[in-house]
Structures
1.
Amino acid sequence: DLKPKSLLYLDGVSVSFDGFKALNSLSLVVEPGELRAIIGPNGAGKTTMMDIITGKTRPDEGEVFFNGNVDLTKLDEADIAQLGIGRKFQKPTVFESHTVWDNLELALNRERGVFATLFYTLSAEDRIRIDEILDTVRLTGRRNDLAADLSHGQKQWLEIGMLLAQEPQLLLVDEPVAGMTDAETAETALLLRQIARTRSVVVVEHDMGFIRDLGVKVTCLAEGSVLAEGSIDFVSNDPKVIENYLGR
Ligand code: ADP
């Protein structure tokens, strides 16, 4: 039984919208400390799966467990975020008129429910934590620059840093490298691998070069369930994956 030792456990998850089955008996198991890549054609159910995990959408059927025994289908979005599940949407939502440092400070304080944010004094530990995050997301040299002046890729990294301030056990990342330069894309693969040393990460992406760089287990979804799962070579040579996704 995989449930007790998995960080994320989905089994037989189905959900329909107006009679259309967006997820059809989907199963997915993510281990603690695992980085997992999710691929699949548009409409495969990737976003719906993320919505189920974060509590935005309720499944009609199936099990969704976190940390072995926490039933996510019984919790609302705010409780699930509090448990340590962070989600990064495709479009970066940083505070453009604040510096990189202040964005991270705001994220750290938001985690504590301090909305007076910048008036709240940071402890020495907080400063060390922000320095560590800056280093992880490759923005140490940009700490005093306005977020607005960052490249698109750097804004994505800053937003990942803002999520790290909340110390998630599981980070869900939606199409991080869309619109990035080749150099930023390659750096993002390294960055996510680094982050996954201390937490689990599930990343949805279409960029197959990036997926290959990640070098991790890949799950290909189609029509709301798992079409193939395994190494990138295994999955990309699967005739069903070629027919439904790669060959299109
Ligand atoms: P992906 O992220 O893989 O492109 P989605 O999860 O966004 O796939 O969508 C799966 C299917 O479910 C699509 O056909 C989409 O139109 C449908 N769908 C998703 N969310 C809703 C919703 N809230 N209402 C109606 N249909 C939806």
2.
Amino acid sequence: MTTATARAHPNIALVKYWGKRDEQLMLPAAGSLSLTLDAYATTTTVSLDASAAEDRFTLGGTTATAGQTEQVVRFLDLVRARADSSAHAVVDSHNEAPTGAGLASSASGFAALAVAAAAAYDLDLDRADLSRLARRGSGSATRSLVAGLGIWHAGDDDASSFAEPIEGPEMSMIIVTVDPGQKKVSSREGMRRTAATSPYYPGWVDSTARSLEEMSAACRAGDFTRVGEITESNALRMHAAIEACEPPIRYLRSASVAVFDAVEQLRARSIEAYATADAGPNVVVIARPADAAAVADHLAGHGDVRIVGAGPGAHLITTEES
Ligand code: DP6
């Protein structure tokens, strides 16, 4: 029996991924760019069990839901097909972030699973291949293979749609958890509905492709101000496209909007901070590391506030034969 354990961290996108052009291969409608965090890790162990009749998945020590298990089994099927193996596996995963609270735990989850499963099934994959594999589990997981800032190329096909590192200015992220609860509409469902019903979806996809080019240039130039401006406008464009769905979806609550207001106040006082939010009510603020403590102080009344920095890409911790 082979056992492998891997660890991965979530990432927060500065240019968001919202929409797929191929659901089967999980190819995104546009590229995206993110920062992998140094907090909220997922640690996953995959143990092959040749005598087991089916895969088993535990999350945080308890049996996962049928839906979660089905996603993991489908992912393991892809790995088994590549490895030419029929062995089932026991997957044990621990998240340091609350699942579903918009802290992208599906990103760290599938990035850790990709690395652990590839090692357990003895696949010889490089970092780009692992990023492509993680993509098949959850789009945002593609980027958690990369340390720090990573760009996920939309690509032309399966082979060219992966993430790689990009240089950029140093930044801290201030995570403002205004509501730790589970989100009501999953990203996957929200994306489908936006693509199918939002009149702004084509504009969102076009503008994101352009924002990504501009963001890449701003990152390479180390231009924190431009990085921040593009981050905030890209997030608001995504939420505008989402809110225009039928039936509408609103991930941002009044408490979230209040954080965007507070960030604007900071800028009026010449503290450069910019806000973004994923498919949930929580807000993530970027700032230069030297300003992070002042930004966190200013936002303290809005919820639980935590300062995080750039973290490592998904990596293997141990492998064992028994
Ligand atoms: C708003 O990667 O969770 O966080 O690919 O369907 O699993 P699936 O979706 P997921 O969506 C992430 C959406 C986002 C933006 C981002 O991380 O780029």
